[in-house]
Write a structure and sequence with these properties.
There is one protein chain. The chain has one domain: NADP-dependent oxidoreductase domain (TIM Barrel, Alpha-Beta Barrel). With 292 residues, the chain is of the alpha/beta class. The chain is built from twelve helices and eleven strands. The strands form three sheets. It has a seven-stranded parallel sheet, with helices on one face. The model has no long low-confidence stretch (mean pLDDT 98). It is globular. It binds NADP nicotinamide-adenine-dinucleotide phosphate. NADP nicotinamide-adenine-dinucleotide phosphate binds next to helix 10 and helix 11.
């Protein structure tokens, strides 16, 4: 069974490997039945955390696609109360582009639409997708605090923030999680002290694109130094990378995407790997020769 960890200081527990929903709804998405099969397989394997966003869709005419897919599939599986679906607001998809829009009114509208799409009375974890350079950061966070006061959302998280922004947000509302890119190519979360700070404050780090994304995961899987370590340990390079993230932060919940059942099956296996300090050092040395 998948190990679990407390989500922030909420008392709620989630599996240490989550499922990122993005690729089930953006350009290149699988058909509906395949998407349902992936979600069902994740649930069967003990995944109790799914990450989504209103903008995981094709464009503004298709908003909330991923939330509807997840909400409907979990309801059909009877898993809507055992799986925690975390969503995000603060972006838009005009013409299929990704643009920030985290103005307070817009965040409120987005949260209400997401709650309906997810078929929930209250969104458990609502994350600011990204700070919006056109809206003061504090005004976006205050909007999330307002949604919490009004019972629209239970817990508040942030995404794509630095340590200073996290601390500024904490002065306004309790922050349960931080979702930032973290993978062998982008280790800014380590260098900036964000990981350590999250550990100390019991804030859940949610590494996104944990395998580097759909293109770079191929580079990982083909990388000879990583393949050698993987063969010795009896895992794949991708599984080792997820195991490395779990070892780097005892509170991390990586959210690899999957369009194939085999991908989530493999990712879940990563939680059983024993990645000690020596293996962490060996992996980090191998990361140094990954192609960009
Ligand atoms: N907050 C943000 O701004 C932000 C930005 C980007 C992503 N995200 C979140 O992070 C999630 C993951 O990010 P991502 O999709 O960019 O990157 P990713 O999970 O690192 O990479 C996804 C790719 O890896 C493959 N894969 C997954 N597990 C695998 C495994 N165990 N072994 C081999 N290949 C595997 C998938 O294959 P298949 O698709 O073929 O199964 C897919 O091509 C998203 O779904 C989304 O929830 C958040």
């Amino acid at each position: 069974m998948l190990p679990v960890v407390e989500l922030g200081r909420s008392g709620r527990r989630v599996s240490r490997i989550g499922l990122g929903g993005m690729w089930l709804s953006i350009e290149g998405r699988p058909d509906r039945r395949q998407a349902e099969r992936v979600i069902r397989r994740a649930v069967e394997l003990g995944v109790t955390f799914i990450d989504t966003a209103d903008v995981y869709c094709l464009d503004d005419d298709d908003l909330n696609h991923n939330e509807r897919l997840i909400g409907e599939t979990l309801a059909a599986l009877g898993a809507e109360s055992t799986v925690l679906t975390a969503t995000k607001g603060g972006l838009r998809r005009p013409g299929g582009r990704w643009e920030t829009d985290a103005r307070p009114d817009r965040l409120r509208e987005a949260a209400l639409r997401s709650r309906e799409a997810l078929r929930l009375d209250r969104i458990v974890l609502y994350q600011l997708h990204a700070p919006d350079p056109r809206a003061p950061f504090e005004s976006s966070v205050e909007a999330l605090a307002g949604l919490q006061r009004d019972g629209v959302v239970e817990l508040v998280g942030l995404s794509n923030v630095d340590l200073g922004q996290l601390q500024a947000a904490e002065a306004i509302v309790e922050i349960t999680s931080v979702q930032n890119r973290y993978n062998p190519w982008d280790r800014a979360a380590e260098g900036s002290g964000l990981i350590d700070y999250c550990e100390e404050r019991r804030i859940t780090l949610i590494p996104y694109s944990p395998l580097g994304g759909a293109r770079r995961v191929q580079l990982l899987q083909a990388h000879e130094p990583l393949r050698r370590v993987a063969a010795r340990v009896g895992a794949s390079p991708a599984e080792l990378v997820l195991g490395w993230q779990l070892a780097k932060s005892g509170r991390a919940v990586p959210i690899p995407s999957a369009r194939r059942e085999a991908s989530i099956e493999s990712s879940v296996r990563a939680a059983s790997l024993d990645v000690d300090d020596a293996l962490v050092a060996e992996l980090e040395s191998a990361f140094g020769s990954l192609p960009p």
